[in-house]
Design goal:
This protein is an alpha/beta fold. The protein has 10 helices and 12 strands. The chain has one domain: 3-Layer(aba) Sandwich (Carbamate kinase). The protein has an 8-stranded mixed sheet, sandwiched between helices. Bound molecules: adenosine-5'-triphosphate (ATP) and Isopentenyl phosphate. This is Isopentenyl phosphate kinase.
């Protein structure tokens, strides 16, 4: 059983304060991961985290997005550096609770071609899983033919990992209990963007990768079922449950 789980940047950071963790939320999430890994399930778990108040601020500062690039190495390094800092914090928490986590930085591994098609080799992640490690990747900047560097969202990394690993399930743990309909109720299941487009907004905070609308669009491309849920449901998801909104 292979699972890809994203810890949302909105969840593990304080999106209102630049480069600030949400300590309690991060600890609760890493504890839940440690309990699941210690309990032997899921067998293979690849983690990804978003940017929250780390990457998005610098991406906006430098005018960089998934489509707008920069050829300024200093700008790219500032965005990347904020993400590796956050990655270090996440890894440290996981190591504190004995999860054998190792980093995977998209900037050093992949690229986009001139048509913006993403190439992100999966062998590193597959071998780490085979050796019993828990790979922890993240949203990042990535080299992009003809554009310098652009942003890769954690959600894109999730989709690449899930496809490359032929994952059985995907989870996106965020600050919301699921995807809400126009009346604020959690939608049980989504299988077409058009059905929910009116209810979907961006993010509450600085976010260059499209918030919830971008997330749903990206996840609909997956073969594996993806679940969007809140922090309270993370243990249930890791135990094999189907919390929040299922996106097919
Ligand atoms: N219909 C909707 N249902 C649920 N959340 C929605 C909806 N429309 C917009 N949102 C917003 O989507 C946000 C969650 O998306 P966001 O991209 O911020 O999550 P994340 O993955 O945790 O963060 P990051 O992108 O930093 O990793 C919430 O802040 C919520 O306000
Ligand atoms: C802004 C950067 C560097 C990555 C964005 O990733 P996301 O928070 O998963 O959308």
């Amino acid at each position: 059983m292979t699972t890809v789980l994203k810890l949302g940047g909105s969840l593990v950071t304080d999106k209102e304060r630049r480069e600030t963790l949400d300590d309690d939320a991060l600890s609760a999430a890493t504890d839940a991961v440690a309990d699941a890994v210690g309990g032997g399930a899921p067998a293979d778990l690849a983690l990804v985290h978003g940017a929250g108040s780390f990457g998005h601020h610098y991406a906006e500062k430098h005018g960089v997005s998934v489509t707008e690039g920069t050829t300024d190495a200093g700008a790219a390094l500032e965005i990347h550096g904020s993400m590796t800092t956050l990655n270090r914090f996440v890894l440290a928490r996981l190591h504190d609770c004995d999860v054998p986590a190792l980093p995977v930085h998209p900037l050093s591994a992949g690229a986009r071609d001139a048509e913006a098609t993403l190439e992100l080799p999966i062998q590193t992640v597959r071998t780490m899983l085979g050796e019993g490690f828990v790979p922890v990747s993240h949203g990042d900047v990535i080299a992009h033919a003809g554009s310098g560097t652009t942003i890769i969202s954690g959600d894109e990394v999730v989709v690449r990992f899930a496809t490359g690993l032929d994952a059985d399930r995907v989870g996106l743990c965020s600050t919301v209990d699921g995807v809400y309909d126009a009346d604020g109720a959690v939608i049980d299941r989504i299988d077409s963007f058009a059905d929910v487009a009116d209810a979907l907004g961006g993010s509450d905070a600085t976010d260059v990768t499209g918030g919830m609308a971008g997330k749903v669009r990206t996840l609909l491309d997956l073969d594996a079922p993806a679940y969007v849920f809140g922090a309270d449901d993370l243990p249930a998801f890791l135990a094999g449950g189907e919390p929040g909104t299922r996106i097919d």
